[in-house]
Design goal:
Layout lengths: L3 E10 L4 E6 L11 E5 L7 E8 L2 E6 L3 H7 L6 E8 L11 E7 L3 H13 L3 E8 L12 E6 L6 E2 L2 H11 L4 E5 L2 H13 L4 E4 L15 E2 L2 E2 H4 L2 E3 H4 L8 E3 L5 E3 L1
Parallel strand pairs: 7-8, 7-11, 8-9, 9-10, 11-12
Antiparallel strand pairs: 1-2, 1-6, 2-5, 3-4, 3-6, 4-5, 12-15, 13-14, 16-17
Length: about 260
């Protein structure tokens, strides 16, 4: 697929590091959990971003590296080049009407998208959004949203597992969805398994092509951009590279 050009319709500064862009593009066939490859003139590589909305196209970008900082400096009316959507996205439960969403940092953005889709389907969602501090929290989803911060500066003090454990003890959910730091997602998945609930995990790796060709995003026997980025916990629990080491968007090995 050749890159297409999108114009930025609006820019919203969500927190200390995250900017959310709404583009003049509609992707009606896209699913929550899928991603696009984005590019800006002057940069050699494209970068993957999870969809935070599809009609219109929305992405939330954390200003971490050179590319993402440049992207976060763009204004309404400027252009972004993109390909996609790609990958396997989240799947709504075939039976049942209650889901739990657990997100860390800007991993909460694609969970807000599935919350909006679930609402249209008559599925009740409860969301947990966690961050280290108040200044790193994302905005709420279109459903009941519980906030947690490590330092107690907003919402419940502690990480998302504190809130998730409490909810899973008291209530029955038909599916758990999680996106954020990999150690957090593994812990959420094990907690869901403990309460006999299926968990879908949205993974991240260093993606260069987005279509399963280059091999940069391999995670054990999985190619994240092609086989995922959504995986059921049963597909990952025996994967020796999940929660261990992955390569960031510069190709640098990062221990989790």
């Amino acid at each position: 697929m050749l890159p297409k050009i999108a114009t930025i319709k609006s820019v919203e500064k969500e927190n200390d590091i995250v900017t959310t862009f709404t583009l003049d593009v509609k992707l009606p066939a896209a699913k929550p959990g899928q991603f696009i490859m984005a590019w800006l003139p002057g940069f050699e590589d494209e970068k993957p971003f999870s969809l935070a909305g599809a009609v219109p196209l929305v992405i939330s970008v954390g200003a971490r590296g050179k590319f993402s900082r440049a992207l976060c400096n763009l204004k309404a009316g400027q252009k972004i080049w993109y390909r996609g959507p790609y990958g396997r996205g989240f799947e709504l439960p075939k039976k049942g009407k209650r889901i739990l969403l657990v997100g860390g940092g800007y991993g909460f953005a694609p969970l807000r998208y599935i919350a909006a889709v679930a609402k249209k389907k008559g599925i009740s969602a409860t969301a947990i959004c966690g961050a280290r501090s108040k200044g790193l929290l994302m905005k709420p989803a279109t459903c009941k949203t519980i906030f947690t911060t490590d330092d107690g500066s907003a919402g419940m003090k502690g990480n998302v597992l504190v809130a998730a454990e409490e909810l899973l003890k008291k209530e029955k959910f038909d599916m758990v969805y999680t996106c954020g730091p990999e150690k957090m997602m593994g812990a959420v998945a094990r907690l869901a398994e403990k309460h006999k609930t299926v968990c879908q995990i949205l993974t991240e790796r260093y993606m260069k092509c987005g279509i399963g060709v280059c091999g940069h995003c391999c995670m054990g026997d999985k190619i994240v951009c092609w086989d995922g980025p959504m995986f059921y916990w049963g597909e990952l629990k025996d994967n020796t590279e999940f929660e261990k080491v992955w390569r960031d968007r510069t190709g640098r090995a990062v221990k989790l």
